[in-house]
Design brief:
Elements (H helix, E strand, L loop, with lengths): L9 E6 L11 E3 L7 E5 L16 E5 L12 E8 L11 E3 L13 E6 L5 E6 L5 E6 L2
Antiparallel strand pairs: 1-2, 1-3, 4-5, 4-7, 5-6, 7-8, 8-9
Amino acid sequence: MGSINKRPLKAFVRFDGSGRVVAGSLVLRRKKPKVGNWQEITAYECCNPTTTRKSYPSGQVSSSSDVAAACALTLDTVVYLNLATVDVIAVGDIVYNDATGLNPYDGSGNFHRIEAPDGQDWNVEIGTNGGVTAAGLCA
């Protein structure tokens, strides 16, 4: 016995000359219609799960220094902060180079001045994996 496809039809929409979808043009068919500019779209969204990525808030970071001088450094790089508590940088938080959190910031185990999303400056030690190992507010 052959298997039965529970979703044998594909969904297509028609586009006009300006590249906009023609209202009411959605059709379900086995093959794409021959006349017109048709594109296949996802027909069964309930059964095709999608993933969404979290976007982290941005801040700025300075170059590295020692613990005593970090707060005086100039902020020169945009970073993204995965904070356990909003607007508070703490041990265990992670600093990223990208908003989606795929590329950790390499802090080389040094101290940096970081401006949090609320504008407060922090003196933060950041490891090579972007992890915060020490943090305190700048005076």
